[in-house]
């Protein structure tokens, strides 16, 4: 049973089928007729049935009972099934409110009507069933008229409770409520209707019926006579002069009250007849309640009720469910169940809807059917080999004469069913082979690898054989496909654990079984790495090399069963320890050099990774860690640990300066207490001025800072070890300034570059006065000169306390003379003031000048030295800006030159690099590189491709000295890890112009951007062009038309030998006896690739060079044949993978002596010095076409311009730099670290910026170098 109106998924019941055959899986499904709406769902595994439809038991749907047929099917072969049909009763719930017979009621009472007399009957119906359809009535007490009436709660009879007190024509209005109640008496469903009672005169009587149908009419549902009068009514008007009346058949609001006009009323004179208007259906409505009213000329109305009952008739034919076949195994005894058929009849009463079954053909002697249940059983034993199927014609008929046919027989239907005779499992499966074996299964075989397949046969065609391993499968090492019998690996095998498996495999057809034995032999492989034994830590004395083995390492191979057999193990160590330890094949570990225990490069415990590899070093490897602990010896002298510098004020009387402290990296027994003394080898002036007593340093004289600002006092310190160690430490003593000198007037100059005229408020320098004292800033006050103040305050601001001058934003280019007064007061002299003059030169510099600036990186020079060449002092801005280090400092200088327009930076860098030595002589500084290149050291900034990008800011940087200051543009180069690509914007060169997104070029300029594509050489010339950037793949292509068989075509490499920048990479393409030859060096040895295919003399050909980290390729004329392709399978050996060159590309020859460079760099192969003779065209590098019309420098070429670079031009550039015509400064501060095995320079930023951090826009310690 199922309650109506339940949501989808409501559980109905669970069906369970039982299969006597073992290990069968039953699957459940619903049997439906074609096109039938899915009302239920069934879980195919559990048999749980749930709703897939919301049922409504009430009109008009009337879903009161539903038949469900379930099929249960096993998974045998063949698949057998059974069906079961059951009825689901839909239970009513109170989900419908009462429905009144009328939309509204209009009744009447006479003026003299007495109390307790009937007024009307209020009637409602409910589509619910049983107790849910019981209706109660009440008057809603909402106005005074309600007190005049009462209603019977059970039948709706409305009566008058007190005399009528209103005049004829007036009304009483009340509201009546009809409702259901639940078992607890609470109202759950209700409806309300308006009732209007009109007062009529006492003499205006209502009509009355003279003939009614008192008894209920009974009609068969098959009654179809639409002309026959079913009931007649007659009435008198009670108005003699107006005898006519009007009958009406009230149309209710439900089907039971004639809402669909199932019945009609016809009136002739004062007689009304009720006739059938539509067909009847007992299964839809079993009873009708008709209300007939009659009205006279006074509009007074009376009513009467006619009941019509519908009788059920046998007018529905039974219908079979969609089950058309059954199965019975052969050789089963008579009486064996075959299947169950099911038909249902939708007639409304048991007298017409009970279905019975019978067999109607010659097979009834073979099968029997239960007439009541439809269960079919066998009468005989069947032989499948004789007949494998039978067809039964089943008749389903109901239990009363048909109302559809006048033959006195019940309604019936027939269905043809097929009964299949299935093969019976009565034979045992048999394995084809009783014993199987497989050998040499490697213990490292992959999981799921198939090893062998077993096969069993069964004479029964319907038997489904399944395979399983029932014994011997230790650790579930194997698995078997239950359908195919394929045995495969399930878990990792191990020869050292189990060497042979004996598997018992069973074949099962569901009833009978057979078994066979499978032997699987495992083959040993080297799958276990060696295992170390007895690894222990050792302790030795530091700084000593013990004789013999410091320890003997032992290991064994688990794959070798007998430990006494040779284990064939070789020992190795990590290559990083190559200069520290060595180990032989016997495991003897020796030291190759002494180990240091003490900082900064030593450790008290040294850890080494030793590896053991079996199969004589060709097999598997196991690492282990060996720890060597060091015993301390007294091998380090103590060092001063005082904070430096120590400050001692000038003019102070002799006395204690500082208590000396020291530290010793040796252990405590070789450390304190320490003994301090002035170094006996100290200069005389030190001994005369300083003295050490115990651990205290004393001044013996008064000091004058103006005489000497700093002393370096050598202190000899000895420790307390058995053999004491001593050394000299330098104590840096600064004489503190005392303002004991009067200042004098001073003049200074400040030069400012205002980048694009957009510099913000910028501190450009301090007011300078001539004063030997340099710590006296707090004693000074700076003020504008009143006479010139008004001319300057719009452009400059002055800090009264520090004297710092700030250039205000918006200051334009020009010369500005600023005048100041400086007031000083000290205990050594009276208050006084002097004048100071500062000349500020402001120049606006365009962005083009920065973008097209060349660059030079100087070595061991400071910005102040570059600007002023005056020695710095401890408290000057120079000393606050940078800190010296052992490796020196670097200064980056950017410069630009223009003769309208600005020269390209590649051109400037090329000319400078060409005459580098002369530049160093003229400027007086060492040059690290020309053309600042952050990609030059491979791997420092980028692992693969690398290109240099110039960054710039309108926030300037400043360099201050006493009498001059310089404020420049903050521009620096930073490496980006991408390959340099052609610009996406289309720029036309050499006078070309854009037409429809293409360059229209002058005659002779044929490149895509109007480049000159060709250049000629005569054997002794060269032309320099912009350098290339390192890329993960570099592709170079050039077309050659040679006139001679030998000559250097292209050289990309250093122009000179610079020991401070050990980069020796180069690429050279040359002709040797008419054949192209490629030389390539990445810094670790030169390789030579020779092309072997000869082309006809004088015929142009193209050479393409492809550089990749793993391989180098040279292709001539796009020829891929083995005879014309030269391919080096490996790139140059060594740690570097790219061509890193900070120099121009040279065509047609070299501007330097390559033999000399080759000897300095130790190149394995040196390019020839002979120049190329002929024409070169279409030079492209990484899709960039080179413009050959304007080389940086050229000699003896067919396009030679006034570009030869002489001394005059170098001197001109130097003068431009030194006179600060137009240059940009960027500071780089680096530290260089050199590893023992890999010589690489690494740059670090010095971060002593605390006092001047306002000068910089950003300091990023993560950058390898910070350029200023």
From TrEMBL:
Residues 2-100, 101-209, 234-320, 320-431, 441-532, 532-640, 650-747 form the Cadherin domain. PROSITE patterns: CADHERIN_1 (PS00232), CADHERIN_2 (PS50268), EGF_1 (PS00022), EGF_2 (PS01186), LAM_G_DOMAIN (PS50025). The keyword Protein biosynthesis does not apply. It is found in: Cell membrane. GO terms for biological process: developmental growth; digestive tract development; establishment of planar polarity; establishment or maintenance of cell polarity; follicle cell of egg chamber migration; homophilic cell adhesion via plasma membrane adhesion molecules; intracellular protein localization; open tracheal system development. GO terms for molecular function: calcium ion binding. SMART domains: CA (SM00112), LamG (SM00282). This is AGAP007207-PA.
